[in-house]
Structures are given as C-alpha cells and as structure tokens.
Amino acid sequence: MIEITVSNTNHSDVIQAEIQRINEIMVFLARWLFPVITFFALINNTLNIYVFTRPCLRRHPCCMYFLSSSTAALVFTLINFPLRTLQYGYNIDPTSSSISICKMKFYFTYTMRAIISWYLVLACVDRFLHSSSISKIRRLSSFRMASRAIPIIFFLVSIGYSHVLIFYKINSNQSCTSNSVLYGKLLGIWHLVFYGLGPPLLMLHFSILTIRHVRNRHKIPAITTANQIKISNRDNHLLRMALVQCLFVGLTTLIYAGFQLYSSLSINQRKDRLQMKKDSLFTLIFGTTSAIGHTATFFVFTLTSKMFRKQISCLC
User: Fold this and answer.
1) Poorest-confidence range of 24-28, 95-99, 225-229?
2) Helical spans, DSSP H, in the chain
3) What pLDDT is recorded for position 254?
4) Whose CB among 34, 102, 206, 253 lies 3.0–4.6 Å from 128's, allowing a Cys bridge?
5) For 98, what's the count of Cα atoms within 13 Å in the CB-facing half-sphere?
6) What is the pLDDT of residues 297-308, one digit of tens each?
C-alpha cells in the first residue's frame, strides 16, 4: 500500500514538473518571441503599405488587395500580440476582468485573421482574371472592382463572426470562453472552414488556374509595344508575388487549421491537466505560426519581386 502511494506521488511529481516546464516555455515565448514578432510586423507591414501606396501601384487592383491585407495584418499584430504577451508572459489577462474586452478581443482576433486571408484570396482571383485571354473577364480586374470587393469582404467577414459577440462570456474560472460545448465545436468547424481551409484552398485553386492561363497565352504570338512590355513586366512581378505569398500563407494557415480540426474533434474528450497544458502550448505555437505567415509578407515580396525591391530602394 505504501509502495503504491509512493509511486502515485512520484508520478504526480513528474506530471507537475512537466506542466511547469510547459509553463516556462509559454512564458519565454510570450516575453521574448512575441515582442520580436510585433517589432518586425510593424516594420514589415509599414514598408508594404509604403510600397503599395506609390503612385505607380496604388490604383492597381492587385496592389489594393495587398495593401488592404498588409493594413489588416498590421492592426491585428499591434493589438493581438501585446495582449497575448500580457496574458501568457505576465499572467495579466484583461479579457478575464471585462466582459466587453472579452467579447471584442476574440471577435477581433477571429475576424482580422480571416480578413487578412480573404484579401489574399482576392489578389489571387484578380491575377486569374487579369491573365484570362477573354477581354470581358480581364476587365473585371479593375480599380473599380477592387474598391467594391474590399469593403464587401470586410463587411461579410465581420457579420460572419458576429456570433462570437453573443456566445463568448467570462466563466466561473475567470476565463473568457464559450460556456457551450456545442458552440465551441461549431465555432472550431466554422473557423476551420472560413479561415483554416477555405482561403488556402481557394488560393491554390486560382493560382493553378492563373498558371494555366499564363501558359496558354504564351502559346499565342502577339505584337507588343514598349509600353505594353513595361506593363507586362509589372503584371508578371505582381503575379509572382501573389502566387508565392498565397503559397506561404496557405501553408502556415493549413498547419493551424490541422490543429483546429483536432481541437474541434476532441472538445468532448476528457483530458488530464498535462494534456490540457500541452494543447494550450500547441495552440500558442500554431497560432503564432499562422500569424507569422501574415506578418512576414515583406520578406516574401522582397525575395520574389525586383519591382518591389526597386520601390523599397527609393527610401534610401
């Protein structure tokens, strides 16, 4: 009997030590990694905004989508990461003391993540339209279309996540969450479809169609002027930027989507303290990975486009 008690005590000590180790990792990430991500996101997205507001680019529909996505990513990072730093790094959680902050924080997080991705979907769609050999379809790639699509997507996504404002509350443990197990599962599936899987799959779909369009157009000989060559070079740069950026964001988002699927399917499973803490760590890591995908766009654009580098060099 004494041996069993000692064994149980040792096992409990091992579990507690593992939980403490995970807590230390989360604190380290929040105190040191999150401020670094915030700093680089501020610089990167500010430079993106500078480039896409240049006179030669600001009325281009694809650049308008990039600009909108970069602006949303900047706002998302400057609000989300400082709050997460306080929560995980210093055990200060404003969402646990104010029902308004609780609702708005999670509504903002879900909404802005999705908006960033859906603007990139629009960029891929724009490249698909612009690369078409049918003139009526090409005309849909326009400043007028972009100026309408951007606010429409913002409105639809904002409405699509409005249910978060209704169901998120502060529970008896002073934690901001949904008290409904059913809603938690439905929200996980909803976010999986409209953020984790939907946008990446649409990016991939339109990217493949765009590549097919470009290959077909190259088979058709055409007489081009110097001005047309200049415009074509710019469009090729934007096409490459859109394809690589969508691939990069799609991969980082799919990683997060996979964990979202696991969380949704296992929401009714009974978990011990160690497994719950591991899930919290993975949520933090995969959520941060998807956020980095949204904040590192400057490096993607710089590596893939000479035109983008030329615009950046104007700052020097």
Assistant:
1) 225-229
2) 2-28, 34-52, 61-84, 99-130, 135-138, 143-160, 163-167, 181-191, 198-218, 226-265, 273-295, 297-304, 306-313
3) 78
4) 206
5) 8
6) 888 888 888 888
Q: Do residues 41 and 73 touch, judged by C-beta distance below 8 A? A: yes
The CA-based angle 118-123-125, given to 5 degrees, is: 90
Compute the CA torsion angle 135, 138, 139, 142 (nearest 10 deg): -160
pTM score, whole prediction: 0.87
Identify the bridge partners of residue 169 per DSSP, sorted by sequence position: 177
Q: Which residues, 6 or more positions from 9, have their beta carbon under 8 angstroms from its beta carbon?
A: none
The tokens for 19 are 């939980």
The 3-state secondary structure of 39-70, one letter per residue: HHHHHHHHHHHHHHCCCCCCCCHHHHHHHHHH
Residue 306, C-beta contacts closer than 8 angstroms, at least 6 positions apart: 237
The amino acid at 297: T
